[in-house]
From TrEMBL:
GO MF terms, alphabetically ordered: oxidoreductase activity
Protein name: Aryl-alcohol dehydrogenase-like predicted oxidoreductase
Signal sequence, start to end: none
Keyword annotations from UniProtKB, A to Z: NADP, Oxidoreductase
Gene source species: Micromonospora pisi
Classification via Pfam families: Aldo_ket_red
GO CC, any one term: cytosol
Protein backbone atom coordinates (compact mmCIF):
# COMPACT_ATOMS: atom_id res chain seq x y z
CA UNK A 1 0.00 0.00 0.00
CA UNK A 2 1.37 3.38 -0.98
CA UNK A 3 1.12 6.36 1.37
CA UNK A 4 1.20 10.10 0.82
CA UNK A 5 0.77 13.37 2.67
CA UNK A 6 -2.70 14.71 3.38
CA UNK A 7 -2.60 18.09 1.69
CA UNK A 8 0.53 19.99 2.63
CA UNK A 9 0.42 18.75 6.23
CA UNK A 10 2.88 16.37 7.82
CA UNK A 11 0.22 13.67 8.23
CA UNK A 12 0.77 10.60 6.05
CA UNK A 13 -2.21 8.41 5.11
CA UNK A 14 -2.67 5.26 3.07
CA UNK A 15 -3.80 6.19 -0.45
CA UNK A 16 -6.75 3.83 -0.05
CA UNK A 17 -8.74 4.52 3.12
CA UNK A 18 -11.24 2.15 4.70
CA UNK A 19 -14.61 3.78 5.51
CA UNK A 20 -17.73 2.33 7.09
CA UNK A 21 -20.62 4.50 5.91
CA UNK A 22 -23.73 2.37 5.09
CA UNK A 23 -21.88 -0.80 6.11
CA UNK A 24 -20.84 -1.26 9.75
CA UNK A 25 -23.90 -1.44 11.94
CA UNK A 26 -26.27 -1.40 8.96
CA UNK A 27 -25.54 -3.99 6.28
CA UNK A 28 -22.41 -5.43 7.90
CA UNK A 29 -21.99 -6.31 11.55
CA UNK A 30 -20.24 -8.66 13.92
CA UNK A 31 -17.66 -11.01 12.49
CA UNK A 32 -18.21 -9.75 8.92
CA UNK A 33 -17.23 -6.21 9.90
CA UNK A 34 -14.18 -7.44 11.79
CA UNK A 35 -13.14 -9.53 8.78
CA UNK A 36 -13.32 -6.49 6.48
CA UNK A 37 -11.16 -4.40 8.80
CA UNK A 38 -8.68 -7.27 9.11
CA UNK A 39 -8.54 -7.49 5.31
CA UNK A 40 -7.87 -3.76 5.14
CA UNK A 41 -5.01 -4.02 7.61
CA UNK A 42 -3.58 -7.02 5.75
CA UNK A 43 -3.67 -4.96 2.53
CA UNK A 44 -1.64 -2.21 4.20
CA UNK A 45 -4.53 0.18 4.80
CA UNK A 46 -3.84 2.00 8.05
CA UNK A 47 -6.23 4.94 7.65
CA UNK A 48 -9.87 4.55 8.72
CA UNK A 49 -12.79 6.95 8.25
CA UNK A 50 -16.05 6.94 10.17
CA UNK A 51 -18.56 9.39 11.71
CA UNK A 52 -20.73 9.79 14.77
CA UNK A 53 -23.87 9.60 12.63
CA UNK A 54 -22.99 6.35 10.84
CA UNK A 55 -25.53 3.80 12.13
CA UNK A 56 -26.09 6.19 15.04
CA UNK A 57 -22.74 5.38 16.62
CA UNK A 58 -22.68 1.65 15.88
CA UNK A 59 -20.15 2.13 13.07
CA UNK A 60 -17.67 3.78 15.41
CA UNK A 61 -18.25 1.09 18.03
CA UNK A 62 -17.58 -1.70 15.53
CA UNK A 63 -14.46 -0.01 14.23
CA UNK A 64 -13.22 0.47 17.78
CA UNK A 65 -13.72 -3.22 18.47
CA UNK A 66 -11.95 -4.19 15.25
CA UNK A 67 -8.81 -2.18 16.00
CA UNK A 68 -8.61 -3.12 19.66
CA UNK A 69 -5.15 -4.39 20.50
CA UNK A 70 -3.51 -2.77 17.49
CA UNK A 71 -0.77 -0.25 18.23
CA UNK A 72 -2.67 3.05 18.19
CA UNK A 73 0.24 5.05 16.76
CA UNK A 74 0.26 2.83 13.67
CA UNK A 75 -3.28 3.91 12.73
CA UNK A 76 -4.83 7.10 11.42
CA UNK A 77 -8.45 7.42 12.56
CA UNK A 78 -10.84 10.05 11.23
CA UNK A 79 -14.36 10.86 12.38
CA UNK A 80 -16.89 13.62 11.84
CA UNK A 81 -19.44 15.83 13.57
CA UNK A 82 -22.51 17.86 12.50
CA UNK A 83 -25.32 15.63 11.26
CA UNK A 84 -28.13 14.67 13.69
CA UNK A 85 -27.25 12.01 16.27
CA UNK A 86 -30.33 12.36 18.46
CA UNK A 87 -33.78 13.94 18.78
CA UNK A 88 -32.77 17.07 20.66
CA UNK A 89 -32.07 20.49 19.12
CA UNK A 90 -28.46 20.32 20.36
CA UNK A 91 -27.87 16.82 18.99
CA UNK A 92 -26.74 18.27 15.66
CA UNK A 93 -24.82 21.09 14.07
CA UNK A 94 -21.48 22.71 14.84
CA UNK A 95 -22.21 24.48 18.11
CA UNK A 96 -19.54 24.30 20.79
CA UNK A 97 -21.87 22.13 22.88
CA UNK A 98 -22.47 19.54 20.16
CA UNK A 99 -18.86 19.47 18.94
CA UNK A 100 -17.49 18.82 22.43
CA UNK A 101 -20.12 16.23 23.33
CA UNK A 102 -19.90 14.46 20.00
CA UNK A 103 -16.11 14.29 20.08
CA UNK A 104 -16.08 12.77 23.55
CA UNK A 105 -18.75 10.24 22.52
CA UNK A 106 -16.75 9.27 19.42
CA UNK A 107 -13.63 8.77 21.52
CA UNK A 108 -15.54 6.46 23.89
CA UNK A 109 -17.02 4.40 21.08
CA UNK A 110 -13.71 4.08 19.25
CA UNK A 111 -11.83 3.23 22.42
CA UNK A 112 -9.16 5.86 21.90
CA UNK A 113 -8.12 9.07 23.62
CA UNK A 114 -7.57 11.07 20.43
CA UNK A 115 -8.65 11.37 16.79
CA UNK A 116 -6.06 11.93 14.11
CA UNK A 117 -8.53 13.84 11.93
CA UNK A 118 -11.81 15.44 12.99
CA UNK A 119 -14.05 16.77 10.22
CA UNK A 120 -17.03 19.10 10.14
CA UNK A 121 -19.46 16.82 8.31
CA UNK A 122 -21.44 19.68 6.77
CA UNK A 123 -21.55 23.46 7.10
CA UNK A 124 -23.83 24.81 9.83
CA UNK A 125 -25.64 28.01 8.85
CA UNK A 126 -27.17 28.32 12.31
CA UNK A 127 -23.92 28.55 14.29
CA UNK A 128 -21.44 31.44 14.12
CA UNK A 129 -18.39 30.26 12.23
CA UNK A 130 -16.01 31.60 14.87
CA UNK A 131 -17.76 29.53 17.57
CA UNK A 132 -17.25 26.39 15.49
CA UNK A 133 -13.61 27.08 14.69
CA UNK A 134 -12.68 28.02 18.25
CA UNK A 135 -14.30 24.83 19.58
CA UNK A 136 -12.40 22.70 17.06
CA UNK A 137 -9.17 24.55 17.83
CA UNK A 138 -9.70 23.90 21.54
CA UNK A 139 -10.00 20.16 20.89
CA UNK A 140 -6.63 20.28 19.17
CA UNK A 141 -5.10 22.23 22.04
CA UNK A 142 -6.51 19.68 24.50
CA UNK A 143 -4.83 16.85 22.59
CA UNK A 144 -8.10 15.14 21.72
CA UNK A 145 -7.74 15.90 18.00
CA UNK A 146 -4.59 16.09 15.90
CA UNK A 147 -5.81 17.64 12.62
CA UNK A 148 -9.01 19.24 11.29
CA UNK A 149 -11.01 18.93 8.10
CA UNK A 150 -14.40 19.47 6.51
CA UNK A 151 -16.73 17.39 4.39
CA UNK A 152 -18.91 18.66 1.55
CA UNK A 153 -18.32 22.37 2.16
CA UNK A 154 -18.54 24.77 -0.75
CA UNK A 155 -15.56 26.84 -1.84
CA UNK A 156 -17.13 29.96 -0.31
CA UNK A 157 -17.61 28.21 3.03
CA UNK A 158 -14.04 26.91 3.10
CA UNK A 159 -12.69 30.32 2.17
CA UNK A 160 -14.74 31.96 4.92
CA UNK A 161 -13.30 29.53 7.46
CA UNK A 162 -9.75 30.21 6.31
CA UNK A 163 -10.40 33.94 6.75
CA UNK A 164 -11.76 33.51 10.28
CA UNK A 165 -8.83 31.27 11.27
CA UNK A 166 -6.41 34.00 10.13
CA UNK A 167 -8.37 36.80 11.80
CA UNK A 168 -8.60 34.97 15.14
CA UNK A 169 -5.00 33.80 15.01
CA UNK A 170 -5.98 30.17 15.60
CA UNK A 171 -3.15 27.67 15.62
CA UNK A 172 -4.91 25.00 13.62
CA UNK A 173 -6.39 25.03 10.15
CA UNK A 174 -8.13 22.59 7.86
CA UNK A 175 -5.86 20.10 6.09
CA UNK A 176 -8.56 17.91 4.54
CA UNK A 177 -11.77 18.15 2.56
CA UNK A 178 -13.94 15.05 2.18
CA UNK A 179 -16.16 15.37 -0.91
CA UNK A 180 -18.06 12.92 -3.02
CA UNK A 181 -15.93 12.46 -6.15
CA UNK A 182 -15.77 9.95 -8.98
CA UNK A 183 -15.69 9.66 -12.77
CA UNK A 184 -19.31 10.84 -12.97
CA UNK A 185 -19.59 13.31 -10.10
CA UNK A 186 -16.92 16.00 -10.42
CA UNK A 187 -18.64 19.04 -8.93
CA UNK A 188 -15.59 19.99 -6.83
CA UNK A 189 -13.43 20.62 -9.88
CA UNK A 190 -14.50 24.16 -10.87
CA UNK A 191 -14.28 25.86 -7.45
CA UNK A 192 -13.53 23.67 -4.43
CA UNK A 193 -10.50 21.89 -5.82
CA UNK A 194 -8.59 24.99 -7.00
CA UNK A 195 -9.19 26.74 -3.67
CA UNK A 196 -8.05 23.71 -1.69
CA UNK A 197 -4.92 23.33 -3.78
CA UNK A 198 -3.99 26.96 -3.10
CA UNK A 199 -4.66 26.48 0.62
CA UNK A 200 -2.81 23.17 0.93
CA UNK A 201 -5.98 21.21 1.70
CA UNK A 202 -5.96 17.61 0.49
CA UNK A 203 -8.99 15.78 -0.87
CA UNK A 204 -10.04 12.63 0.97
CA UNK A 205 -12.75 11.55 -1.46
CA UNK A 206 -15.63 9.14 -0.97
CA UNK A 207 -17.87 7.14 -3.30
CA UNK A 208 -15.16 6.45 -5.92
CA UNK A 209 -17.42 3.69 -7.29
CA UNK A 210 -20.54 5.90 -7.39
CA UNK A 211 -22.42 3.54 -5.06
CA UNK A 212 -21.07 0.55 -6.96
CA UNK A 213 -22.32 1.73 -10.35
CA UNK A 214 -18.78 2.09 -11.72
CA UNK A 215 -17.91 -1.48 -10.71
CA UNK A 216 -19.99 -2.64 -13.67
CA UNK A 217 -22.03 -5.10 -11.62
CA UNK A 218 -25.34 -3.37 -12.38
CA UNK A 219 -26.49 -4.24 -15.87
CA UNK A 220 -28.95 -2.20 -17.98
CA UNK A 221 -32.39 -3.69 -18.18
CA UNK A 222 -31.69 -6.18 -15.38
CA UNK A 223 -32.55 -6.21 -11.66
CA UNK A 224 -29.72 -5.66 -9.18
CA UNK A 225 -27.73 -8.87 -8.66
CA UNK A 226 -28.41 -10.88 -5.52
CA UNK A 227 -26.08 -9.92 -2.72
CA UNK A 228 -25.47 -6.38 -4.01
CA UNK A 229 -26.25 -3.36 -1.86
CA UNK A 230 -29.02 -2.28 -4.22
CA UNK A 231 -30.75 -5.62 -3.62
CA UNK A 232 -30.26 -5.48 0.14
CA UNK A 233 -32.02 -3.83 3.03
CA UNK A 234 -31.47 -0.68 5.06
CA UNK A 235 -30.64 2.74 3.62
CA UNK A 236 -28.11 1.55 1.04
CA UNK A 237 -30.65 0.47 -1.63
CA UNK A 238 -32.34 3.89 -1.42
CA UNK A 239 -29.07 5.71 -2.11
CA UNK A 240 -28.02 3.36 -4.91
CA UNK A 241 -31.30 3.01 -6.78
CA UNK A 242 -31.55 6.78 -7.14
CA UNK A 243 -28.54 6.75 -9.46
CA UNK A 244 -29.35 3.66 -11.48
CA UNK A 245 -30.65 4.15 -15.01
CA UNK A 246 -30.21 2.28 -18.28
CA UNK A 247 -28.58 5.24 -20.05
CA UNK A 248 -25.91 5.43 -17.37
CA UNK A 249 -25.47 1.68 -17.01
CA UNK A 250 -25.07 1.18 -20.75
CA UNK A 251 -22.35 3.81 -20.88
CA UNK A 252 -20.55 2.36 -17.87
CA UNK A 253 -20.33 -1.00 -19.63
CA UNK A 254 -18.26 0.73 -22.32
CA UNK A 255 -15.55 1.22 -19.71
CA UNK A 256 -15.01 -2.54 -19.50
CA UNK A 257 -12.63 -2.76 -22.50
CA UNK A 258 -10.63 0.13 -21.04
CA UNK A 259 -10.26 -1.72 -17.74
CA UNK A 260 -9.27 -4.88 -19.57
CA UNK A 261 -6.64 -2.97 -21.53
CA UNK A 262 -5.22 -1.69 -18.25
CA UNK A 263 -5.31 -5.19 -16.77
CA UNK A 264 -7.56 -4.23 -13.85
CA UNK A 265 -11.12 -4.75 -12.73
CA UNK A 266 -13.66 -2.00 -13.34
CA UNK A 267 -13.74 -1.28 -9.61
CA UNK A 268 -9.98 -0.87 -9.52
CA UNK A 269 -10.16 1.39 -12.56
CA UNK A 270 -12.66 3.67 -10.83
CA UNK A 271 -10.69 3.85 -7.57
CA UNK A 272 -7.38 4.38 -9.41
CA UNK A 273 -8.95 7.17 -11.48
CA UNK A 274 -9.63 9.21 -8.33
CA UNK A 275 -6.08 8.65 -7.07
CA UNK A 276 -4.72 10.06 -10.31
CA UNK A 277 -6.68 13.30 -9.99
CA UNK A 278 -4.82 16.47 -8.93
CA UNK A 279 -5.22 17.34 -5.27
CA UNK A 280 -6.51 13.93 -4.17
CA UNK A 281 -4.59 12.55 -1.19
CA UNK A 282 -6.69 9.46 -0.54
CA UNK A 283 -9.80 7.59 -1.60
CA UNK A 284 -12.29 6.05 0.83
CA UNK A 285 -13.61 2.60 0.01
CA UNK A 286 -16.46 0.76 1.68
CA UNK A 287 -16.98 -2.98 1.60
CA UNK A 288 -19.34 -5.70 2.69
CA UNK A 289 -16.88 -8.55 2.15
CA UNK A 290 -13.10 -8.95 2.64
CA UNK A 291 -12.54 -9.78 -1.03
CA UNK A 292 -13.96 -6.37 -1.98
CA UNK A 293 -11.46 -4.71 0.34
CA UNK A 294 -8.56 -6.61 -1.21
CA UNK A 295 -9.68 -5.82 -4.76
CA UNK A 296 -10.13 -2.10 -4.15
CA UNK A 297 -6.92 -1.81 -2.14
CA UNK A 298 -5.06 -3.04 -5.21
CA UNK A 299 -6.02 0.16 -7.02
CA UNK A 300 -3.29 2.03 -5.14
CA UNK A 301 -0.69 0.29 -7.31
CA UNK A 302 -2.50 0.86 -10.63
CA UNK A 303 -0.92 3.32 -13.04
CA UNK A 304 -3.14 5.08 -15.59
CA UNK A 305 -1.55 6.96 -18.46
CA UNK A 306 -3.00 10.10 -20.04
CA UNK A 307 -4.35 8.24 -23.06
CA UNK A 308 -6.34 5.88 -20.87
CA UNK A 309 -7.79 8.71 -18.80
CA UNK A 310 -8.77 10.53 -21.99
CA UNK A 311 -10.50 7.35 -23.19
CA UNK A 312 -12.55 7.26 -19.98
CA UNK A 313 -13.56 10.90 -20.47
CA UNK A 314 -14.56 10.20 -24.06
CA UNK A 315 -16.86 7.37 -22.98
CA UNK A 316 -18.64 9.26 -20.19
CA UNK A 317 -18.51 12.73 -21.75
CA UNK A 318 -21.99 14.31 -21.37
CA UNK A 319 -22.85 12.16 -18.35
CA UNK A 320 -20.24 13.85 -16.17
CA UNK A 321 -21.59 16.40 -13.68
CA UNK A 322 -19.33 19.38 -12.90
CA UNK A 323 -21.94 21.82 -11.59
CA UNK A 324 -20.36 23.48 -8.51
CA UNK A 325 -23.77 24.49 -7.16
CA UNK A 326 -24.39 20.81 -6.38
CA UNK A 327 -21.58 20.66 -3.83
CA UNK A 328 -22.90 19.13 -0.59
CA UNK A 329 -25.69 17.42 -2.49
CA UNK A 330 -25.83 13.77 -3.46
CA UNK A 331 -25.12 12.42 -6.93
CA UNK A 332 -28.80 11.58 -7.31
CA UNK A 333 -29.79 15.25 -7.40
CA UNK A 334 -30.52 15.97 -11.05
CA UNK A 335 -27.51 14.01 -12.34
CA UNK A 336 -26.11 15.04 -15.71
CA UNK A 337 -27.07 11.74 -17.32
CA UNK A 338 -30.81 12.33 -16.76
CA UNK A 339 -32.31 12.73 -20.21
CA UNK A 340 -28.98 12.15 -21.98
CA UNK A 341 -28.98 9.83 -24.99
CA UNK A 342 -27.39 6.42 -24.62
CA UNK A 343 -25.25 6.88 -27.70
Amino acid sequence: MEHQRLGDSGLTISKVVYGNWLTHGETVSGDAALACVEAALDAGIDTFDTADVYAMGAAETLLGKAIQGIRRESLTIASKVCLPTGPGPNDRGLSRKHIMESCHASLRRLGTDYLDLYQAHRFDDDTPLDETLIALDDLVRQGKVRYLGVSEWTAAQIEAALTVVAELGLRTRFIANQPQYNMLWRVIEPEVLPLCQRAGIGQLVFQPLAQGVLSGKYQPGQPPPAGSRAAGTGRAPTFIRRVLGDVLLERVQRLRPIAEEAGVSMAQLAVAWTLHRPGVSGTIIGASRPEQVRENAGAAEVRLDDALIEAIDAVLDNLVDRDPTKTARMMAVEPAWMGAPAG
